[in-house]
Structures are given as structure tokens and as C-alpha cells.
Amino acid sequence: xxxxxxxxxxxxxxxxxxxxxxxxxxxxxxxxxxxxxxxxxxxxxxxxxxxxxxxxxxxxxxxxxx
Length: 66
What we know:
Shape: globular
Radius of gyration: 12 Å
Distance between the termini: 17 Å
Number of strands: 4
Order of helices and strands: EEEE
Largest sheet: 4 strands, antiparallel
Strand order of the largest sheet: 1-2-3-4
Oligomer: single chain
């Protein structure tokens, strides 16, 4: 079961945030900022927030592998 995440420390507002999903395989929350061209990953266990800037708009992320 995914944890309830009400706020992510260090996260900035997205221009157009979409596609949030819980990835059970790595126990993390993923989402994209379409207009901001950024992919985000939040690990609630460690509290770390990762982000990757893309050269073009990204509309969603899909996990692969297990």
C-alpha cells in the first residue's frame, strides 16, 4: 500500500504537474512537470527528491522491470 504523502519537502510548484504514480517496486512517487520539462522522483523513506530536466516536454513516465 502506498503511503499518504501530503507535502514533499523541497518540491517546487510545477508549471503543469501531471502523471503522478506510486512505484511499488522502488517505493517511490514519480511525476512530471510537462511545461517545466522535468521528471521527479520522491523517496519518502529517505526524504530525497530527485529531478531530471529534459530537452523537450515530457508527458508521463512509465516504470519498467521489477
